[in-house]
Amino acid sequence: MQAASTLIARYNTSPELQQIVRFLFAGGFAAAVNWLIRIGLSFFMPFWLAVLLAYMIGMSVGYTLYSRFVFQGPRNDAKKAHTRIVHFLSVNAFSAVIVLGLSLALAYLLTMVLPLFFAEAIAHGIAIFCGAVTNYIGHKVITFD
Question: CA quadruple 16, 19, 138, 83: dihedral positive or negative?
Answer without folding.
Answer: negative
